[in-house]
Amino acid sequence: MRKFALILACCGAFYVLLFIGFRFLTDVGALEKSYPHVIYNKKAKTARVEIRPKPPAGWVNLGSVSSLAVAAIVLSEDWAFYEHNGFDWEQIRDSMEKNLKEGRYARGGSTITQQVVKNVFLNGDKTLSRKVKEAILAMRLERQLTKKRILELYLNVVEFGEGLYGIGPAAHYYFHKPASQLNAKEGAFLAMLLPSPKKYSVSHRQRGLTRYAYSTVKSILGKLLATQRLTEDAYHAALNTPLSFEDHPVVVSAGSEPEDEDVEDSVSRSAPTEGIESNGTEEEDTSTLPEEEVIEEPLTQDEPTEPAPSPGQ
Question: Which domains does the chain have, with CATH numbers?
C-alpha cells in the first residue's frame, strides 16, 4: 500500500511539473494574431506546422466560409463547441461507452479546441502525458482566444485528404468552388470526411457516395434540419441533389432511404446558433508550391492514393 501511494505521489508530481512547464513554455496566445502553416512533404508523406506572422496562401477567414458548411462541421465534430470551455465531458463519456460497446476505438472524444491544439502544438504520440498536455493547452487556448478564432484556426488546419489541409483547398478540390459557395450537402460531405479523410474520400474516387457516406451525409443534413438551419423542403432537396462529382447519385423519396450503416443518430438536442454567421468573400492565393510545401490549394492529381499523417495525430 505504501509503495502504491509513493507511485501515485510521483505520478502526481510529474503531472504538476508538466502543467507548470507547459504553462510557461508553450505560447498558445501567439495564435491570436499569428497563423499556423501546414508544411507537407510529398516524398515522406508527413506534415508539420510552423507558426508565422502572416496567413498562408489559401487561408480563409471564418466569415468567408458558407454558414451552412460551418454549421455542418460544427454539428458533426463538436456540436457543443459554443458551450464548453475546451472539453465536452458528455462527448468523452459517449465515446468511452461506444468504444467499450464495440470493443475497439470507434469514436474519439476530442473537441474542436483539442484538435487545434493537437494539430498545431503536439505530436501524434498516443500517451497519457500527451493527453495531459492537450488538456492543459486546450483550456489555455479557450481562455486566450475567442471561439470564432479557434474555429477559424480549425477550419484552416484540419485535413480533408492526402496533403489537403483547410476548407478552402478542400472546397476547390472536391467541388471546384470557393468555401463561401459551399451548399448544405457539400458542407455535410466535407464534415463526413473528417474522422478519416483517406478512408471516407473513397466516395470521391468512385464518383458516387458509399452507403456509409450517404448515411452520414443524411444524418448531418438531419442535424441542420433539427437545428432549423434547413427547412423540411430544403432538407429533402439537398438529400436528392447529387454532388458535382457523382456519376451515379442516390436519389430517394422520403421513407425509401438506404439503411443507415455505422452512423450516429441525428443530434439529440439542439446546438447553439451563436457564431455561425453569413457568408463573406473568400480570399485565396493559388500560387504554385515547391516540393516541401504549404498545402493551401487543391491537389492536382485525380485523388490521393495514400494517407498523409495529420500533424499531431
Answer: 27-294 (1.10.3810.10)
